[in-house]
From TrEMBL:
GO MF assignments: phosphorelay sensor kinase activity
Protein's organism: Pseudothermotoga hypogea DSM 11164 = NBRC 106472
Keywords attached to this entry: Kinase, Membrane, Phosphoprotein, Transferase, Transmembrane, Transmembrane helix
Domain Histidine kinase intervals: 14-220
Protein's name in the database: histidine kinase
GO CC annotations, alphabetized: plasma membrane
The organism's place on the tree of life at top rank: Bacteria
Compartment list: Membrane
Broadest EC class assigned to this enzyme: transferase
PANTHER family: SENSOR HISTIDINE KINASE TRCS, SENSOR HISTIDINE KINASE YKOH
Length: 220
């Protein structure tokens, strides 16, 4: 059984690698064609095709990230400043949600052993998820707290809570909550969980007083 699962993971990784370059090439060609003088109805259809290619690029990227965590070990860890990684993730997500406000505690330098780019991606996925499901007028807030040999990072938003019956499934690959209201593949939180597992970190969801919290507790 373990061998079969490993073969399936390797197959998914290979397919994702093989798809990424042709998809990127097709997207580039479409973007060039869209600058040309074409009938409006043709451009509308081409925009739809480009949108679907973007979605395929996203799913292959997320699957490759999960595969990367399965082929990375502690020997690849380096000492990084956690606050810098969090700020980088905020910068990435704020470019996508430029009308959204992000509030973060005044945090000092906190050193953790990790794979920096992967943690940035995990925090960015949590922030992206918070933006998708937050009330439009409310900010996204982040809290960082040191406690002995661990650091707790909370990503919080105001919005509808995740239904009770879905909460034990939200970190599974391809799971979509019954209250999902945006396009997606159910991979964002699965990537977060894979990255957390690699770093021997806990990650979980809770809801208190109308505030949704995704919490990651990292060892230093």
């Amino acid at each position: 059984m373990n061998r079969t699962m490993e073969e399936l993971r390797d197959f998914a990784t290979t397919i994702s690698h093989q798809l990424r370059n042709p998809l990127a090439s097709a997207k580039t060609r479409l973007e060039v064609l869209l600058t040309e003088d074409l009938p409006d109805n043709v451009k509308i259809e081409m925009e739809k095709i480009k949108h679907n290619i973007d979605r395929m690029v996203e799913i292959t990227s997320q699957l490759l990230l999960i595969a990367r965590t399965q082929h990375t070990s502690a020997k690849n860890f380096e000492e990084e400043d956690l606050s810098s990684l969090i700020l980088e993730s905020i910068d990435q997500v704020s470019q996508k949600y430029n009308n959204k406000e992000f509030l973060i505690d005044s945090i000092k330098e906190i050193k953790v052993k990790c794979v920096g780019p992967l943690l940035i991606h995990a925090f960015a996925n949590l922030l992206d998820n918070a933006c998708k499901y937050s009330s439009s007028e409310k900010p996204i807030t982040l809290h960082v707290e040191e406690s002995g040999e661990t650091v707790k990072v909370e990503v919080c938003n105001y919005g509808d809570p995740i239904p009770e019956q879905d909460r034990d499934k939200i970190f599974l690959k391809f799971f979509r909550s019954s209250n999902a209201r945006t396009e997606g593949f159910g991979l964002g939180l699965a990537v977060v969980k894979a990255i957390a597992d690699l770093h021997r970190a806990q990650v979980y969801y809770e809801c208190e007083d109308g505030v949704n919290k995704f919490v990651m507790i990292l060892p230093k």
